[in-house]
Design goal:
- The chain has 150 residues and is an alpha+beta fold.
- The chain has a single domain, classed as Electron Transport, Fmn-binding Protein, Chain A (Pnp Oxidase, Chain A).
- Strands 1, 2, 3, 4, 5, 6, 7 and 8 form an eight-stranded antiparallel sheet that branches.
- A hairpin with a 2-residue loop joins strand 2 and strand 3.
Length: 150
């Protein structure tokens, strides 16, 4: 069964509620996929990571990236194996990624990520001093699409 294209609002809503996604980068040694936590804000997706590593090296090499979010909602069985299908939702985002260098944007992004994942109130606010220990990447969205099937 082919999927139904989700409109932009449906796709954004799906991405916003997703708990994790996968970032595809390309470096001198080829493609690399990293599962990570993120937050969508306006036309950017923010991620945090260690200040050094392969993901940042790859983004320095090639700023074009792809970000994917998907959710399998179930398998639809059939007596004919070739007619099995999957209920799913998925979204793809293409754009350019780069290190966030502005202190204000970096702190804002980290606090947005923290508020998305720390719902029980145990996380205090991220201060500029705490933000110095990590890197923040912004994916500037150029195109976005979503699909649902099953």
């Amino acid at each position: 069964m082919s999927g139904k294209v989700m409109n932009l609002a449906e796709t954004r809503e799906f991405i916003e509620q997703a708990r994790w996604g996968r970032l595809a980068t390309t470096g001198p040694d080829g493609p690399y996929i990293t599962p990570l936590h993120f937050v969508l804000r306006h036309d950017k997706i923010y991620f945090h990571c260690a200040p050094r590593g392969r993901k940042l090296d790859n983004i320095s090499h090639e700023t074009r990236v792809c970000f994917e979010v998907s959710e399998m909602e179930g398998i639809i069985e059939h007596v004919q194996p070739c007619k099995y299908t999957t209920r799913y939702r998925s979204a793809l985002v293409f754009g350019r990624a780069g290190l966030v260098t502005g202190k204000e944007e970096k702190v804002l992004a980290l606090n947005l990520i923290a508020s998305k994942y720390c719902k029980d109130g145990r996380c205090g606010p991220v201060t500029p001093e705490k933000a110095d220990s990590v890197a923040v990447i912004a994916l500037n969205i150029e195109s976005i699409s979503g699909k649902a099937g099953g």
